[in-house]
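Archive entry. Fields below.
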Amino acid sequence: MKWVTWENIGVDRMACIWLIRRWIDPKAEFIFVPAGTKPLPNAEPFDIPGARYSHQHGHCTFYTLLKENNVNDPILTRIANIIDEADIVQEINVEPAATGLDLICRGLRRISTNDQEAHERGHLVYEALYAELSNNEG
Amino acid sequence: MTDWLLLHYKLPSKPSALRVYAWRKLKRLGAILLHEAVWVLPDQPRTAEQFQWLAAEIQEMGGQVHYWKANPVLGEQDESIIQQFNQQVDAVYSDLLKKIDKPRADLQEISVQYQQAASQDFFHSQLGILVREKLTSKRGEKP
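PREDICTED_STRUCTURE:
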């Protein structure tokens, strides 16, 4: 399936792409369009205001993707909480990793020539995060 | 010259919880309400995203919202708005400076409050640097 989002991905969308590739749609193809572009036919929009896969009820798009696709994995839920804190201003914060993760993902986009390269690099960050959190939970 | 983000919205008067929710979120972002009318933030990647999502949320809650990027035509307007942003964080910082030196100060609590203020410190207040230095110098000190 084709998936579309706005350019300049950060903490939430790098995680979404990683999640889609690993758990939802291994053959996914990603298209990055300038902010404000009209919806494309035959491509599922994500993290675009108004889309089904977007911020919902004060949660990040990663969280919405988990819920809507019934992905049940406590580690992924934990990652969703971290991204909620990294991407959305909260009054209560319990995940100190959030701020660092946000900075690293912004920096990854900055040192990449395009979003394609940025999400490939982001993949490794989320693989690492998942592995470490799994190890801690065990 | 700084570019600015302007947000103007109208939410249904009932339930009032929605209005409280939006207002608290704007305060938490560190936005400034100009003349009881328009909320302002400096245009940065993070603030632009936060306003974008808040605008979407306000629509989801049945409200009407306008969201612009703008730059002032009169240069000195910048200065007075920047000053308002600085005053907002400096109020918190000076309060923290008083607390830090008290005997048995709760430094952990103060660091959390410092981080919250720092996330709204868009123009790098000098007082913020001072709080940070004071806090880090307290590390490892025996009570």
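CURATOR_NOTE: The mean pLDDT of chain B is 92.
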